[in-house]
Amino acid sequence: xxxxxxxxxxxxxxxxxxxxxxxxxxxxxxxxxxxxxxxxxxxxxxxxxxxxxxxxxxxxxxxxxxxxxxxxxxxxxxxxxxxxxxxxxxxxxxxxxxxxxxxxxxxxxxxxxxxxxxxxxxxxxxxxxxxxxxxxxxxxxxxxxxxxxxxxxxxxxxxxxxxxxxxxxxxxxxxxxxxxxxxxxxxxxxxxxxxxxxxxxxxxxxxxxxxxxxxxxxxxxxxxxxxxxxxxxxxxxxxxxxxxxxxxxxxxxxxxxxxxxxxxxxxxxxxxxxxxxxxxxxxxxxxxxxxxxxxxxxxxxxxxxxxxxxxxxxxxxxxxxxxxxxxxxxxxxxxxxxxxxxxxxxxxxxxxxxxxxxxxxxxxxxxxxxxxxxxxxxxxxxxxxxxxxxxxxxxxxxxxxxxxxxxxxxxxxxxxxxxxxxxxxxxxxxxxxxxxxxxxxxxxxxxxxxxxxxxxxxxxxxxxxxxxxxxxxxxxxxxxxxxxxxxxxxxxxxxxxxxxxxxxxxxxxxxxxxxxxxxxxxxxxxxxxxxxxxxxxxxxxxxxxxxxxxxxxxxxxxxxxxxxxxxxxxxxxxxxxxxxxxxxxxxxxxxxxxxxxxxxxxxxxxxxxxxxxxxxxxxxxx
Length: 622
Prior knowledge:
The chain is of the alpha+beta class and 622 residues long.
């Protein structure tokens, strides 16, 4: 047998070497696989099991039912109403635009509806329902039911939408909810609002958003590869929002709203005993239901461009010169500081001139009021008396005393973005205008003009404090949030420190003369049912030259003076305090005082006598 040659030996060695290399590679590769399997299956088993499970198990948020809002008698002011919606499930529709076009041939779907749908679609998962139309009528539901077989991925869904049964009467107080916008998305807790598309925008809906909203629930579901729900594995139900019960009285609110008539303005009524806000009108107003599911551009532009500004809440945001309604508070400051005493008199010739100054300040009564003391100055609303009193006290003392009644401060009412208005001072003018305070500024402040501005709720609150003998009970709309009362404990209520209690009585006696005195500026309010302590006010809208005579017949309506009135009743045991501002209403006694009287009559259950009835009674008496 021939021995193998050198080439065969080399070939055999090469084969064996390659075989060993291949075997080594296979062994190493197998070892790597085994190590990897050990790492996956043993060391990190729990982690990858969780990931695998997450591919088929999803947690879906369950939105809570929003708390409802009730008036003092249990009447619903904001409620959740069942809504039948037309919904689209995006992942079941190939061409959404084409489907919407076909739906428009059956139902009314506006461009605003389409735009809202597209915004919501971007925020939701593809397998979730997205409404294209909300709150369908019975007729619209029937029209779609007939054609339903043509539309894959389109169906009727049931949801709850916010409904405000009293529309414009409560728009500014209760406020409204609306869809969460991009700016709000950046600030809210996304987990808390998962599955929720609405949030409080204004009024009580915004102020008590956290209480009304509730807590989101969770549903654990199994889904397929396409994202469809196969079955529900576990459910943690949501917690409903808390209901809110108010001091507010809807019937009194309607009375106050209607009493303003054609005037824009505000009416605020406060329970003197509790600080509860019984009515808070801002007129004109709007229907809050327009905003719930997104107001149309046409409707919003109409409200925004309305010169009467119905979107503006005058009761808490409005700033008006208080006019003569501030005089009782300035008179009280004069008594408490010893600047004047009750029997002290001055002579009113119809004008006032600061010593060593050139300007003359006119009284509203050009011939003057003659000899006047504190009580008669309130009764007849003598400007000269308060020009002199303010000048004698000085702005520092005046500002310090008026700030006790929360002029120039927020009252703390449970409403968002309340104005503090302006209680002028040296520091305020320096900061605002970079100019020094002048004696004439003090004189103007003495009659509630110049830089001095108040909000209607500030004026009502100050009146309630005066009626409550100095007790500073903060005004509140909500009497109870859930089961928790908002009424403060007696020992926590602050009180204005009195120098002499009789000073307060002297001021209230003067306010009684306003409605009962022979020369009272609101003497027509005197009645046999209850006694009213009040003060009229007229605030200039346009500045007048020194010797110019005001003649409203030559001015446009929007340049007429504002009419104001503040009052409380009954005097012996005060229960209700009211402030009224009727924009461009002229004289407080003629316009604003009767509005307050009507509100008080409604609160005390006094049936109002119509003019025809009164005439018949008077003729019968004769």
